[in-house]
Fold this sequence. Notes:
Elements: E1 27-29, E2 39-44, H1 59-68, E3 73-75, E4 82-84, E5 87-91, E6 97-102, H2 116-127, H3 145-148, E7 165-169, E8 172-176, H4 184-187, H5 198-202, H6 204-209, E9 217-223, E10 227-232, E11 246-251, H7 255-264, E12 269-270, H8 275-278, H9 282-287, E13 291-294, E14 298-299, E15 301-303, H10 314-322, H11 326-331, E16 338-340, H12 365-375, E17 381-386, H13 392-406, E18 410-415, H14 418-426, E19 433-435, E20 438-439, H15 450-453, H16 467-477, H17 482-499, E21 502-504, E22 506-508, E23 510-514, E24 518-522, E25 535-536
Parallel strand pairs: 2-11, 17-18, 17-19
Antiparallel strand pairs: 1-24, 3-4, 5-6, 6-8, 7-8, 9-10, 10-11, 12-23, 13-23, 14-20, 15-19, 15-21, 16-22, 24-25
Helix pairs in contact: 10-12, 16-17
Amino acid sequence: xxxxxxxxxxxxxxxxxxxxxxxxxxxxxxxxxxxxxxxxxxxxxxxxxxxxxxxxxxxxxxxxxxxxxxxxxxxxxxxxxxxxxxxxxxxxxxxxxxxxxxxxxxxxxxxxxxxxxxxxxxxxxxxxxxxxxxxxxxxxxxxxxxxxxxxxxxxxxxxxxxxxxxxxxxxxxxxxxxxxxxxxxxxxxxxxxxxxxxxxxxxxxxxxxxxxxxxxxxxxxxxxxxxxxxxxxxxxxxxxxxxxxxxxxxxxxxxxxxxxxxxxxxxxxxxxxxxxxxxxxxxxxxxxxxxxxxxxxxxxxxxxxxxxxxxxxxxxxxxxxxxxxxxxxxxxxxxxxxxxxxxxxxxxxxxxxxxxxxxxxxxxxxxxxxxxxxxxxxxxxxxxxxxxxxxxxxxxxxxxxxxxxxxxxxxxxxxxxxxxxxxxxxxxxxxxxxxxxxxxxxxxxxxxxxxxxxxxxxxxxxxxxxxxxxxxxxxxxxxxxxxxxxxxxxxxxxxxxxxxxxxxxxxxxxxxxxxxxxxxxxxxxxxxxxxxxxxxxx
Length: 538
């Protein structure tokens, strides 16, 4: 996260991100008559979980959930800076106790008013360990979190509500953190911090079948592995309201198929293009001014599941990382649409430092072979991932690079789709290395460390646990001054790079596209559709 210094804990120094595109500003615009009742179709993958705010941390579900629910603050598409969305005000004098007032007049899609208790109830539900919400750990800064979500996964929670949440009135609630936190004001714009209506708690199963949010789009229907249909919520009060009627999230198992549909006008938006379209910049000839660009805040990596005994040997992890020819893969297979990673925090994030990974992220087959010999490993390596979304080709290339440098077997093992793959990862069932890509939930160095490398983090795919790293991250979280907190996060980053629980691979340049059916579209810093910017041709 980022931020704050004084009472408002606002975004720190602006990230010097400037989105550019053929039409400027991260989106393309053409002239023509607009159809406010038109339909927009976007590329989707099958969601891993039910469409609840704290249950969803992956791309397939997030693009639906983010449209269904609105939070206290929003993020600007260009740089992730925050603005008050449902919040009337968020005040603090010590970065520990926050007084939050919400705007009146907002309703859920079922017509019931959004009250302060709907935020408090939803946050308590998300944090409570027995509810097994994927994003539950994001509530960790709130006082009383350890009572509802013990560090020991086998321990019983002693309470079902956090002591740090207090409803003051229908439009006001108070949040007390366990320690000052420089990031909290930015963090609460992330999806898990959405409110839930009373109807959810009355009948969770019925709600899962037809979720009711407070966002710009409302749920219409879902056909698994095919289509999720949403519709504009005309009573929506937010400034990010949409200017079209229907949103069709089309589920694809093949990014190539989706791309052909985009060119043919059967699909209106893709946030990323398949590798074949990038070779020789073919997409420019295919799409012209329909191309969308953005400076992304994301990180690609290959995780070592440390519950697999062989991967507990750091020399094997170092050997594999040094056997990966990042320069060659990003230039050839990824056609210059990615750049090699040099750490676990991407450029563009405040607190990024160059070459934190050092020699272990540099291609050196001779030293890699020596490290492999020292590790004693003689088996076969695999890289597991979903096959859709253009993920197969670069990971096959990674395996080939490892195979050639180390003279051992390496094979890509593909799951049918992203949802199926994430079930393997979350169930701790990886048998080989696994793809572990990450897009910023909010623009902060904290967001690239806590969820992925803190013990029990929501996306800690490697099952990495370091008491020393945990201690420093906890200290960083509890540092009210933004600059001082960032220095602490940087300290933790260096220790993670030394342990190498995953391999930083490459950072993506944002390249998406719209169809000719749209007059305008925009790609965000998180590689998502900025739906408020979409305009349908009449």
